[in-house]
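Review form for a predicted model. The reviewer records the input and the model, then writes brief findings.
Reviewer: anonymous (R2)
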Amino acid sequence: MAVGDRRRHGADRLLVASWRGNEGVALLTPRPDRRPPDAATIQDQLAALTRRGVRRAVTSALAAQEQDGFLAAGFEVQERLHLLTHDLDTIPEVRADVTLRRGRRTDRAPVLDVDHRAFDPFWRLDAGGLRDAIDATPSSRYRVAVGPEVVGYAVWGRANERGYLQRLAVDPARHREGIGTALVADGLTWLRRHRVRMAAVNTQEGNTVAVAAYHALGFRSEPEGLTVLAIDLPGLA
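Model under review:
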């Protein structure tokens, strides 16, 4: 592989993986429980990626305080996202006729099939991206909704007193059946059980349907969103 398996760099502050299975594009993700990587750390990694033949690097969705090192290293804005948070005071009522259970290795194919039908190509996950979402935080919860086939899934994470809805997807043919609500309620309950104070999720700026759905589930939009940054690598080494 051009990028290789997930690696930690810069005193365990930066995770590196291939982007959606594309070995010519790298995904750089700051660890949520670490200080953001500085420009020198990022530039060192970009040089190493260039030597491996990687053509482009893309960041995960970054908060404002995480962007400085990447911007100083030459990254530019790829896409802006809404950031929504939930204080966990109220858990949504569940009325869906589905069963939630722990995700299994044998669920990978149907889960990714649901993911591909739920998202535009740029945001779709492959097997590595699903693994990265599950492993992105120190603790995670991976649940699938079955009824009886896999009709949705969610990946939640915890880092200190902060929770993250890393991924939520429902089969478009099963929208408006409460499946997403059930997956969100399950994750919020898990976070509250572990005394998490705040949960966060992000979605594309143009996805007004998702924003409205999250508002209905008790999330509120934050005034400052998130940003995906990118850089082309030729000539950096």
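Findings: The radius of gyration is 18 Å.
Further findings: Residues 55 and 234 are 6 Å apart (CA to CA).
Recommendation: see findings above.
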